[in-house]
């Protein structure tokens, strides 16, 4: 009996030792040398954000969310559709008959163009130290060859070509001249002017779509440059990383000015649409693959140094609550930054806010909206992920790991992002609460060289239990309409969790990250 018990205890000890050894072996070993060579690491992922259409920027909720995201990312510009739509009121050739009191010499210019709302839109951005990334769209109804040719969005933008390009050219000229008169050429020369939006989809009604888009681009670019050669203009602003090589070749062949190339991609785009193959490309590499594709196309083009801007990207284009509302976004974003660094001048996340109406008026929070801030000013986990990654430095320390980024700041601090990527919990557009068994945690064993062996560490987290308003929303039963008390609770639940204060132990630190978890360490 004693012998059996001894054998049992020995077997248990061996099992425990094996388990501990296995855990130690499974911990990912990362060595970070603070004196290692670095490369520039501009924060290309947070320079520009997309947003709902132009007119929404006059809303208080839009401007509140703008300031919220500006505060945590210090982003520089915002891109939206629809600055030429009728609701903004720029173009109305019949307006002269509505202003009989105008003197004859004022009638022509003052009657056709009305810059009142445009000025309020741009003034509001600039007052918050945010510049417009100026997408030139959509067609004013009275300028359209077919005013009934509209896209399916809730606000039904007119996507027809102009009935007369002389009218379009005159509007572009007047628009550019007005901006320079109001803000000065030194300011306007820092803006990007992008011609139209996704002309290879149903946002452009010309046929065949790409050749007629090139005609639109040619007229627009030449009209802008006629006002000032310092205005930056580019395109083709295509969906699915398409037609950039064709666009640049067209500009070269016809001597058309171009200052940057822009295109879009989403992580759930298909390989058939982006690469014209039958591959099954996972969501965590699709954006990188598309960015690399266009980067290489530009390198082989007549303009190998042309700046590349992905003026729309996200983990989903299709309102998937399990993707854009949840902690999934943190590891996906960090991994995308790791992969795309050095391939593009900037990437504009679509969007900063759920003040957004492409699919109609928002009916409930956490419906899979694109924004970092849900309705009623409720922060999503994605806002916290952006806030944490903003803390990374501007010099990158090369690592061989696929789930870590290391950077250095000018003050000597070292920053490390760690994540545990896992696919979304649910499938498709339906939301699925996190399962009881979410998957394995990931352990990291960090070793720091050329830093004080007991240096102070600030640790930030976002995961299912930190900075996650969706957990509280689930506990409420996911109500469609919120009370004021529920809004307060969700805002509190979605706030960034307080930083943990740690110290290195003889230059070492062990961190565990759960599935869908993102951690950022700042080593002072």
TrEMBL record:
Residues 1-24 form the signal peptide. Residues 29-493 form the Glycosyl hydrolases family 39 N-terminal catalytic domain. Keywords: Glycosidase, Hydrolase, Signal. The active site is at 198 (proton donor). Gene3D superfamilies: Glycosidases, Glycosyl hydrolase domain, family 39. GO terms for molecular function: xylan 1,4-beta-xylosidase activity. The keyword Signal applies. It is an enzyme of class 3 (hydrolase). One of its GO terms (biological process) is carbohydrate metabolic process. Its EC number is 3.2.1.37. Belongs to the glycosyl hydrolase 39 family. This is Xylan 1,4-beta-xylosidase. It comes from Tunturiibacter empetritectus. The lineage of its organism: Bacteria, Pseudomonadati, Acidobacteriota, Terriglobia, Terriglobales.
């Amino acid at each position: 009996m004693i012998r059996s018990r001894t054998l049992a205890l020995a077997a248990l000890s061996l099992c425990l030792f094996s388990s501990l050894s296995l855990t130690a072996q499974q911990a990912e070993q990362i060595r970070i040398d603070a004196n290692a060579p670095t490369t520039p690491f501009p924060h290309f992922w947070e320079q520009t954000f997309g947003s709902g259409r132009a007119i929404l920027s006059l809303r208080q909720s839009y401007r509140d969310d703008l300031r919220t995201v500006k505060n945590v990312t210090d982003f520089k510009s915002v891109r939206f559709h629809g600055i030429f739509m009728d609701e903004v009121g720029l173009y109305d050739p019949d307006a002269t008959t509505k202003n009989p009191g105008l003197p004859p010499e004022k009638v022509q210019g003052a009657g056709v163009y009305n810059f009142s709302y445009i000025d309020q839109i741009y003034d509001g951005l600039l007052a918050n130290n945010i510049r417009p990334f100026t997408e030139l769209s959509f067609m004013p109804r009275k300028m359209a060859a077919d005013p009934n040719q509209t896209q399916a969005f809730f606000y039904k933008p007119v996507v027809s070509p102009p009935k007369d390009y002389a009218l379009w050219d005159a509007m572009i000229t007047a628009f550019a001249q007005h901006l320079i008169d109001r803000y000065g050429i030194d300011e306007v020369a820092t803006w990007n002017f992008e011609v139209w939006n996704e002309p290879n989809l149903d946002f452009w009604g010309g046929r065949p779509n790409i050749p007629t888009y090139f005609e639109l681009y040619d007229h627009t670019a030449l009209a802008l440059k006629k006002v000032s050669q310092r205005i930056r203009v580019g395109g083709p602003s295509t969906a699915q990383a398409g037609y950039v090589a064709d666009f640049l070749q067209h500009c070269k062949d016809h001597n058309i000015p171009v200052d940057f190339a822009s295109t879009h991609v989403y992580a759930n785009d298909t390989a058939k649409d982006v690469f014209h193959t039958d591959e099954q490309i996972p969501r965590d590499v699709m954006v990188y693959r598309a960015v690399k594709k266009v980067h290489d196309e530009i390198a082989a083009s007549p303009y190998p140094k042309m700046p590349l801007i992905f003026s729309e990207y996200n983990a989903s284009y299709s309102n998937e609550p399990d993707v854009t509302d949840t902690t999934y976004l943190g590891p996906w974003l960090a991994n995308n930054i790791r992969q795309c660094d050095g391939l593009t001048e900037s990437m504009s996340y679509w969007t900063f806010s759920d003040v957004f109406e492409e699919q109609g008026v928002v009916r409930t929070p956490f419906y899979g909206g694109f924004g970092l801030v849900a309705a009623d000013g409720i922060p999503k986990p994605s806002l916290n992920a952006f806030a944490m990654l903003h803390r990374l430095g501007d010099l990158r320390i090369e690592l061989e790991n696929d789930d870590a980024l290391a950077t250095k700041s000018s003050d000597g601090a070292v920053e490390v992002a760690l994540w545990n990527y896992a696919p979304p919990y649910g499938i498709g557009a339906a939301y699925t609460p996190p399962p009881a068994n979410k998957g394995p945690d990931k352990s990291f064993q960090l070793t720091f060289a050329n830093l004080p062996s007991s240096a102070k560490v600030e640790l930030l987290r976002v995961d299912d239990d930190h900075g996650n308003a969706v957990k509280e929303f689930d506990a409420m039963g996911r109500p469609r309409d919120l009370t004021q008390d529920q809004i307060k609770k969700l805002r509190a639940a979605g706030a960034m969790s307080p930083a943990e204060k740690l110290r290195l132990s003889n230059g070492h630190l062990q961190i565990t990250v759960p599935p869908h978890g993102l951690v950022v360490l700042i080593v002072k």
